[in-house]
Amino acid sequence: MQHTLPVIELPSADEDPNAATLLREAAHLVRSEFPAKKIKSLTAHMQSRLTLISIDKGSVVATAGLEIESDCQRAILEDIVVASEYQRRSLGSSMIKMLEAKARETGIATISVTPVRSAVGFYERLGYESGRWGNIIFDKAL
Fold it and tell me: What is the chain's mean pLDDT, rounded?
C-alpha cells in the first residue's frame, strides 16, 4: 500500500509556532526505536541537519534525517523511524528517496546508513550495499 501522508521538512521555530512540539514528537518517536538516545541531544542534532517528518492526526508518525559531512562528499541517513502502524506503506522509502534527492542536489556522491539488523533488507531493496567496516555501514552511489 502506498502512503498518502505528506512528508515535510521539520520547520524552524521562525517558520512554524508548532515547530518545538513537532521536534519533541519526532525525537520521542526516534527514542521509542532507539532508547539509548537522549532527548535533549537528539533534538539539538535534529535541528542542525535536514530532518523530514510525516504527520497524521496531529502527531509525527515518521521521521528521517540527513547529515552532510563537512567535506561535502558523503551524506549519512540517520534516525529513520516509521511508527509501527504506518510501516509497509512506502512512507520510509519515500522519505529516503527525498533525502537522496536533496543530497544529489548538493553534489553528494555517496550516501551511507548504519541500519539496525532488522532493516538490512529494506536498505538493500533501495540500492544500498554493505561493505565498509565489516558490513556495518551500507553505501549507495548517487
Answer: 87
